[in-house]
Design goal:
The structure is a homodimer.
Chain A (H helix, E strand, L loop, with lengths): L2 E3 L5 E3 L1 E2 L3 E2 L30 E2 L2 H7 L7 E4 L9 H11 L5 E5 L8 H7 L3 E6 L4 H9 L6 E3 L2 H9 L7 E6 L1 E3 L4 E2 L14 H6 L2 E6 L2 E2 L15 E4 L6 H4 L10 H16 L8 E4 L3 H17 L3 E8 L1 H8 L3 E9 L2 H9 L3 E3 L2 H5 L13 E4 L3 E3 L4 E2 L15 H7 L2 E5 L3 E2 L2 E2 L1 E2 L14 E4 L2 E4 L4 H9 L7 H12 L11 E6 L5 E6 L2
Parallel strand pairs in A: 5-15, 6-7, 6-10, 7-8, 8-9, 9-29, 10-13, 11-14, 13-15, 16-17, 16-20, 17-18, 18-19, 20-23, 21-26, 23-27
Antiparallel strand pairs in A: 1-2, 3-4, 11-12, 21-22, 24-25, 27-28, 29-30
Helix pairs in contact in A: 8-9
Chain lengths: ~525, ~525
């Protein structure tokens, strides 16, 4: 197979079996759409027709679900999800083969999928993030076809643009009415926003709601409307609340993490962003929350009112909204009970779909309006490229999620990382797997100094003026290697186990079997 | 031209110049969709790009708007609308010709459109209702091509199914942010729901928001999202509040109207519908409100809680929601200030698009869930067909709006009419213009008796048991003719000035020039 080289210098085959023709990554903003939106078949539902189905099996037969179809799922029930396993068990029971699973993120709870992969029930996977035994099994090569790893915005784009064609979307619905209006804010498995399921509901050929909480028509608010739902199946339980939402998320107590967080806040301040209208995204981890905490103190001190917080929402953001530090929360996913309650009660807490959040191919997604985003990294390189897909051992242990999307959209993108991860340097010449391109990353904050992307001379001047401890990325790399030595190169074979799509649908990298 | 005859016995040409091939009406539930959804071109909006345009003229040039395009508009600003006239004035100034206007309803304020029609700027019109000088001019034959008259649900269907292809949607937006999130609940021209603009925003090739109230990003709630809006133009005023919403809508004091209203409520009661979960639609006119008032008294007496009120919303419905008589309002259009305020404040007051309200071609619209609807008629015939398009003189003075949609969806469809309209019988052998087919109409209530559609023997038995004054439609017709005589037949020529599409896209009738 002839190889091509993309804009990050990654060698790729021209064609990947099980994926198709490779369009090489060509720069974060270079690829323009040249297609029309996915156009599913138009439906008709006569007055009096009933959408309630007795069982998943009945729905499989009515549609009918056949070999080779793509079944999609959202991940809002996270590690408490019962629906994916339930649906795939029916598929296995009915003897279906060669199904492709399009699940926005894969969690440890989805371990039974490995058996279905081994049995040939599931032979394809399309996801934005994966962890647990499915990720491990795929890294070992359980799937003949490579898994397709997308970003949260890229998945929405792929669905809307017809590149990820969904035959049947199974939508876990914490609350539903009998005509298919769905939301996530109440019911025993309440999860908050259903944002990642919006594109599936809009563009799948068939939409099946799976619920354990059927209420009187009409349900309000409507996250997914009746006009797109074909069937409703009631089951005993769609998910385990313990695994769906955490009680509260805590700010880190690790002194190194706190130092990095404080420096991060100072970077945001030095960039001149702590002013009225400030908009912000950060993760739900303890270190990210710590950064939010320092930013909040600065906002309070300066008396500024921010515009919005975006992305995955935690109780900490809910508190900032309630205290008037920000005017809005834009919520594509809630992480804790406080986020679920706030979405239900506060009209300034907006629920949006993955397309609104982060798709690069529409009339403007919310990440485009971000001032600052704070992101993590498992590897970082001197060209500012980030790896959040593979660990230092080359095994898949994550995925972009909204990483590349927010990085591309925000005015200032900050990656935070300890210089060492375990006993290995985080910073290197070339990340093993490129996930987020360096041109969209502005600043690296470590406990030993701050590196600014050479493209951002404007920002570098501001941070220098503010007295931040600036270093070249190459210096930071040398510092890390001085402590931990130069890591051995990972040996991989030729077999591609994952294709990493950048948010615009070009291929930024592939993962080869270790 | 060979003629064909549709299921109501109406003779139609096989092909109508300016419309296309005629698909004859074949029964209200007989036509199934056989197409995919309209698939507009996918867009990209880079971070930092600005959507604000200095003027409509600039937007016309940037898109660019060219001869022969279809420009769409919603009618939520009713007789206070400034936007249609503003946009067409720019089109005229730029020398554009042969534009088609797709405006969900035409009001007297749109009179300047007649000049644009005479000048050849506008040569096509697609609407659901029209009144004022545009309707009069079209009846006189100002347009070479026939106007296409649709239902509210049918317009949504035609847009979603690609039969009404919109090049540019101009959306009058009472409030907008700088990235194109729009709603109708605040601003000087607040009109409430923007439901009729939803399909336009979703499927037009270009979407231009026109606003006089630009607020900080992000606007909540979002009726039309940023992901679909290309440009935002700020103008001095999008509409005159006096013409947009009425202060309050009053119940009729006419004793005949009150009698009909009371009988109507008794029909609903006798049909066994006054029980928990009752759902209801009625118009905003004084007689319809009176029917709602009698229904309300029955509900209060029986202590029942209704499910929802649907359609155009008035202060009277708002009051019933506030008092707990209904659990929800499903609002595609607000008629008065109370409706606007309630939509802004009450989470049980839902805003929905025209597709959710009434499109026959999706996975189930809200009219399908209606128990009872009360509708008007300008003519009614012994086969229960209704005319709401032409007056007794054959001149266009209305349109279906949601008439045919609600009639098709509701369990019990009641048409109310005085036996005489002016000095002419309302009931006749054949309505001049068939708008809503008799198979979807169950009961006619007049001041001289109640006629039940012979198809509904079940209903007839119930109404008889309740002691309602039942009469055959033929008897009522005879009664009317005894008072007023047999009206002269209207003389029309061959020229077709309007094509009346049933909600499913088949042709139920045409209007010929008087």
């Amino acid at each position: 197979m002839r190889q091509i080289v993309n804009a990050l210098g990654r060698a790729l085959p021209e064609y990947i079996e099980g994926y198709g023709i490779v369009r090489p990554f060509n720069g974060a903003f270079a690829t323009l759409p040249a297609m029309t939106r996915q156009a599913p078949k138009v439906k008709r539902m006569q007055p009096g027709e009933c959408k309630l189905a007795d069982s998943l099996e009945m729905v499989f037969k009515r549609i009918p679900v056949t070999d080779g179809m793509t079944l999609s799922f959202h991940h809002h029930l996270r590690n408490g999800d019962h629906v994916v396993n339930m649906v795939l068990a029916v598929a296995a029971k009915l003897g279906l083969k060669n199904l492709k699973v399009a699940l926005s993120s894969v969690f440890p709870v989805h371990a039974p999928m490995v058996d279905h992969m081994q049995a040939g029930v599931v032979t394809g996977l399309d996801t934005n993030y994966m962890s647990g035994s499915v990720a491990a099994a795929i890294s070992r090569g359980v799937l003949a076809q490579p898994v397709i790893l997308r970003t949260h915005g890229g998945r929405a784009r792929a669905i809307e643009c017809g590149q990820l064609k969904i035959d049947v979307a199974f939508i876990a619905a914490p609350t539903a009415d009998d005509y298919g209006n769905l939301n996530g804010i109440s019911g025993p498995a309440a999860c908050g926003s259903l944002g990642y399921a919006y594109p599936d509901a809009e563009y799948a050929d068939w939409v099946v709601a799976v619920t354990d909480h059927l209420v009187e028509y009409p349900l309000t608010p409507v996250s997914i409307p009746q006009t797109r739902v074909d069937y409703i199946v009631t089951v005993e339980s769609i998910g385990d609340p313990q695994g769906i939402v955490s009680g509260t998320t805590q700010i880190t107590r690790d002194p190194v993490g706190l130092k990095i967080a404080e420096t991060t806040a100072k970077v945001i301040q030095a960039a001149g962003l702590i002013k009225d209208g400030f908009s912000f995204q950060t993760g739900a981890g303890g270190a990210s929350l710590a950064a939010a905490h320092y930013v909040r103190q600065m906002m309070e001190k300066a008396g500024v009112t921010g515009s919005f917080v975006l992305g995955g929402i935690t109780g900490y953001m809910v508190e900032m909204l309630a205290k008037g530090l920000f005017r809005r929360l834009i919520d594509v996913q809630g992480f804790d009970l406080a986020a679920v309650r706030s979405l239900a009660e506060n009209p300034n807490h907006m629920e949006v779909g993955a397309d609104f959040y982060a798709s690069p191919f529409n009339n403007g997604c919310a990440v485009n309006k971000l001032d600052a985003v704070v992101l993590g990294a498992t590897e970082f390189d001197i060209d500012f490229n980030v790896n959040v897909v593979t660990g230092s051992d080359g095994v898949i242990m994550g995925g972009s999620g909204g990483h590349s999307d927010a990085a591309a959209g925000a005015k200032v993108t900050i990656v935070v990382a300890n210089l060492l991860r375990g006993r290995l340097p985080v910073i290197m010449d070339k990340v093993l797997t490129a996930t987020t391109p360096g041109e969209t990353v502005d600043v690296l904050v470590t406990e030993r100094g701050v590196a600014v992307n050479p493209r951002r001379t404007d920002l570098k001047e501001k941070l220098a003026a503010a007295g931040l401890p600036l270093r070249d990325a190459i210096e930071l790399k040398a510092l890390a290697e001085k402590i931990a030595g130069v890591p051995n190169k990972i040996a991989t074979d030729e077999r591609i186990i994952a294709v990493i799509e950048y948010r615009d649908g070009t291929i930024i990298d592939v993962v080869r079997k270790v």
